[in-house]
DNA sequence: TTAATTTGGTTGGTGTCACGTACTAAGTCC
DNA sequence: GGACTTAGTACGTGACACCAACCAAATTAA
């Protein structure tokens, strides 16, 4: 159970932590980077994630809940707060009079773009110690894992 | 800004998401797995992390705050809740009468072991679609990245 | 075509978590 | 001795997540 993201001694040759610890530590590292990105705009990671999902979708609340793996009541609150900040809008669904379409506002879209850029910078910085080939290999492997693990 | 962990179509050949999106998505995947592991014992990810740090340390509150990158007042609350659950104990420091040593209780140690095992299972399951060689390569690359990025 | 059920969403209550500010007590430095 | 720093707590606030209960619209059954 690898839980430590605080600076450690730089090993001349990095010891292999094993698949479990290395992925867990990596995830804390990346999440920390994303948290800092979001914090620059006064947002949380979950708000960043919300904006990310809405970049190419106009889902209802239920669908949003599935994407974010949250309870629907949690999504109500999440969207409430994002709406209060002027980042998203609730529009009535044209198909279903009960339902709602959640949409990015212009401000929200601008924020999403800024976050995306900054996240790119920060994550690339994390991988700065890797060589080009290593980085490419890591990207491929991570992509493969993600594809395999999310394909139900 | 890759924010989606919900199931997607399984691509015959996984497209490379790029280093940024692949690492971000991977981090959400791993954090989700850790959240489920913790939830099985009625804990949160940060509590899991706390137990992980305490496996091989008996830090003071300040030191704990540094390890977890939290404000010291946040650590007070965190340890309060863990103590209330019987997982950790506050002992007076022998060196400094102001300070405290945070220690795992027997119950806490048992929980840490259980979490560790289960996290291993779940993370290995995530990587189940990778071949042995791929998994080993990913582990090495992730280890290298972590070592490089945490070495101040 | 009513009646029963499912679906989409909100409300209200509870607990966790993180922060900032303010505070006490103990250690350290002149 | 007094000034300053360090270790930790207390308190108030806000974000976040869940559950249970609820309403209204949509769908299915009778």
TrEMBL record, chains A, B:
Domain HTH marR-type: 16-147
GO biological process, alphabetically ordered: response to stress
UniProt xrefs under Pfam families: MarR_2
MF (Gene Ontology): DNA-binding transcription factor activity
SMART domains tied to this protein: HTH_MARR
Name this polypeptide is given: Transcriptional regulator, MarR family
Species this protein is from: Actinacidiphila alni
Source organism phylogeny: Bacteria, Bacillati, Actinomycetota, Actinomycetes, Kitasatosporales
């Amino acid at each position: 159970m690898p839980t430590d993201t605080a600076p450690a001694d730089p090993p001349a040759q990095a010891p292999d932590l094993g698949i479990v610890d290395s992925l867990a530590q990596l995830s804390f590292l990346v999440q920390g980077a994303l948290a800092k990105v979001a914090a620059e705009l006064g947002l949380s990671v979950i708000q960043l994630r919300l904006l990310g999902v809405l970049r190419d979708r106009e889902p209802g609340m239920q669908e949003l809940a599935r994407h974010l793996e949250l309870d629907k009541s949690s999504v109500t609150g999440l969207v409430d707060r994002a709406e209060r900040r002027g980042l998203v809008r609730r529009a009535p669904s044209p198909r279903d009079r009960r339902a709602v379409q959640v949409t990015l506002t212009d401000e929200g879209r601008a924020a999403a773009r800024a976050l995306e850029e900054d996240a790119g910078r920060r994550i690339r910085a994390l991988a700065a110690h890797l060589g080009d080939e290593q980085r490419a290999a890591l990207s491929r492997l991570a992509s493969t894992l993600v594809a395999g693990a999310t394909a139900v």
